Amino acid sequence: MKMDLEQLRKTAAEVAAREEVKYLVGWKQGTYGYRVAPAFVEDAAGAAELIFSPLCTANLATYLTLAEQLPVPRGGEPDDRKVALMVKGCDSRAVTQLLVEKGIERDEVVVIGCPCPGVVDAALLAEKYPETEEPAEMKWDGENFLLIRGGEETKIARNEILAEKCRLCRYPNPVVSDIMLGEEVETWDLAEDEGVQELENRDVDGRAEYWAEQFDKCVRCYSCRNVCPLCYCQDCILDRLNPTWVNRSVNFSENTAFNIARAFHLAGRCIECGECERVCPANIPLGKLNRKLAREVRDKYDFEPGVDPDAEPFQASFKPDDPEDFIL
Amino acid sequence: MTEKPKVGVYICHCGINISSTVDVDAVAEFAQKLPNVKVARTYSYMCSDPGQVLIKKDIEEQGLNRIVVASCSPRMHEPTFRKAISEAGVNPYFLEMANIREQCSWVHEDIEEGTAKAEKLVSASVAKVRLLEALETKEVDAEPAALVIGAGIAGIQSALDIADAGFKVYLVEKTPSVGGRMAQLDKTFPTLDCSACILTPKMVDAASHPNIELLSYSEVEEIKGFVGNFDVRVRKKARYVDFDKCTGCGDCATECRVKDRFPSEFDQGMGKRSAIYLPFPQAVPAKYTIDPENCLYLSRGKCGKSPKCQDVCGAGAISFDQEDEFVEFKVGAVIVATGFDPFDASRKPEYGYDDYPNVITGMEMERLVSASGPTGGKVKIFNGEEEIEPKEVALIKCVGSRDTSVGNEYCSRVCCMYVAKQAHLIRDKLPDANIRIYYMDVRAFGKGFEEFYDRVRRENVRYIRGNPSEIFKRGNKLVVKVEDTLTSTPLEDEVDMVVLGVGLEPRADMRGVMDLLRLSQSPDGFFLEAHPKLRPVDTATDGVFLAGCAQGPKDIPDTVAQAKGAAASAMIPLARGKVTINAQVATVNEATCRGCSFCVSICPYTAIEMVTVNRFGNEVEVARVNEALCKGCGSCSAACLSDSIQPKSFRDSQILPQIAALGVLK
Amino acid sequence: MSANFEPNVVAFLCNWCSYAGADLAGTSRVNYPSNIQIIRVMCSGRVNPLYVMNALQQGADGVLVSGCHPGDCHYMEGNFYARRRLGMLKDLMEFVGVDPKRFHMSWVSASEGHKWKEVVEKTVEDAKEAGPFEGFRRRQIDW
User: Rounded distance, CA A163 to CA A36, Å?
Assistant: First the structure.
């Protein structure tokens, strides 16, 4: 698939220039290597730096709720303008889920949909093709990715560096949008979730051992929470002292409690964008926790978050015939 | 800032109920060392007056501001101690109870284990009580009206009492007439007064009372709200007869094309009725009803050239296009008087009720001996050729009662006496018949019962102790196979007629009312009262009361007594005009609420709404609780990701320390 | 694990059904293991699933949540929410390696004193089999 950058920038310029739009959030090339940075475009001119490439892994929907609501000076008026947002398929599910739980209102956003053939796992890419200082470019090229740097083009097989979340992606096309850029991409054959399956096949002690090793590494930086588009309580219970759900000390017990609570709060809400795992400095496979729960929600409760803006929130609803085989 | 907690811990011996399995002194010594505990004492009966005085005195002298009572279940005495501490000037919600009786001393035997557990429970209570908050109870107006569901003798009596006291009553009856089971009975034990004679005037009173709105042939569809303020919606089923025009003359039923074709419910199927019918001659209201399933016109769309009832009705009351109507009203209290079902004798196939026409149930016998019944009061059987008077009659007690094989462990309480009464009535009609009663025990416990039982025995009615195992046919005789357990003699008793003394069962359709009012069942399946001894007419739902056999088998005097009790209880909020609403309601921290409205979706009482508030100049949506509607269940809070909505007295900040106290890290 | 290990079980019971059922067990003098401690909440729907995690962290070896039978909830629907939430939690806990024997949920009505005894026996027995919970139990630090 070819992403027409011209069209993207033109559309973005038009949207950013709108009176009703405060700014547009998109992707721009980062300062070095495979980095891509969020771009906050306030006017038409700013749109020139926008890109959409296999390196645009970040889910920008998080900026919808991350933006601080500053106190309005006395006599002033709150800025009610819209935020425009570029979304891939997975990102768009975050937008939908935010609509479901009233994190945002539909008329507060302009959603620019970017059908996505799958992004790369930058860490995996860097492992195979070490990062250099020079900012690299990347393109989709059929069944391959095209890495462009120093004027040189390298073809890399798609499956070699495709991000895990994309191997398992069922929604490459945005589920909500005001403007759709380019044509819809075709969905692809889903990979098996081997990571989760491998753990499920272990006995309970095997799993305990695995997660003990993982949670032990946690430095409690809260990056996973901060980057998550659906973790947006102003006052997170995992930060709170009264009552104290989780002590602040960094040790295995508290780390585990933190990670369980974080994953549980996303049950039936996580849209599997994989950002938590991507940003984790300790490389804890948080995606496995989320995907396990997401799959249970899908299989047992026939529910999928972030696809229907009119859905009842999973955690705030029930069906009379919800499974209860675990009840004595 | 609130005062520093000064906790008093009071451990009850409850006679020896607690102290035999819990070393109460050791628990007191343990409690004394817990943080913020100023006093820890034991006493033989904390709930007694001196026990309460002990607490009050400590509050005054030691300045206690939090109280833990370790005794029985809070479901028992929480109100008692709340009242006591508030009399001593401490907020009644600064109380926490440790249940060391029902959930400790009564279920464990080892004193060491019991003591250890009691200590843990006390430490959890102390952990929680320190963090409780003072709550104020609020009052809202109560609607001075009551809803009575079911218009048998229980419902009628409750309705009359409440109406006589000057309150509006909505009396809802499912069937076309009031009267219930009592209207079907012939004579009543032990006094033998005619059931209809004493009931009919009450039926008429209920229908004509200026304060009673009788909704017959109607069903309650929905009840919302809470004590003092129930919103009720009732479906008035279509009678297909204009209620105001019908004069009750009965010409329609006489002319009906399917006249006397259908089993009469009132006559237990032994008599017949037409598709348009009055359930029984004294029915109130005396208005005809068309049974839509059997009416030719309503079921097939055609009845000859034109429906005869319509042709013949001088008042022009027949109205085939009538539809169900709905009425809505508000009441302050509800009485459930939905009665019982007689045990279905088919469930004891060994007695051949389905196979032999001369095996009948007690209810059928009532109709048979009744002068207004299908035989005009003659006890007759059909022997295959002709109708004859039976010579040999057997009555069997405890059919479907005290019988775990049909799932009914309980005694139905009325069968002993009604079977004796029927034996007496049969003796009256058939002076020469041989009558015997098969029984397991005779329980003649009520006023005049034993005397009546003696009288019946003197009337040459034989009581044979034995529970028949089978009834089968031999020639045109019925054989009752039984062992006379007093003489250990197996018998094969040949008789002409058997009356099964069927017991009382919970109504098959009680589920509907249970769901409407969130009521529970006791193990016997009848409605569960709030307390078996001290609150026998109350339910767990405030403002909802029970009367009559809906709560358990009862005879008529007990039913009337309970109906009067329920009426008196229901009138408390009506007379006061106010009800106290639950203080332990949910509350929202608007500063942390993220406005997701999960709680709004969850709340089954629509007690939460989203409101717009100003947060530093920005308009944000947050949840707000309507305290009058909130029941304090806390379902909202368990789903609140930011913990912003919390039920008072059951906050996370109050429960987590309890968990910690019970955990006791090693 | 030692054979005479006695687990510490924390139970959350709804006020109207299960707590009343446990009271009835007492009134009926039904005997059951003493290692279960009850925390009363108004409705099983009140039980924040994270309480289960917290109880394990704070020293419980097993946790039980019990409410009214489906359709019998005093608050109409609370137990349905509890069922969904705690079902999810159970899946999550098992996935992170907490023995499923450590957490149970049951429906016990106000009239089921005997069922309550059975539930307690099963919960305690399972917790006993699972042994002392080491997992992510909070450890007291000796300074």
Answer: 15
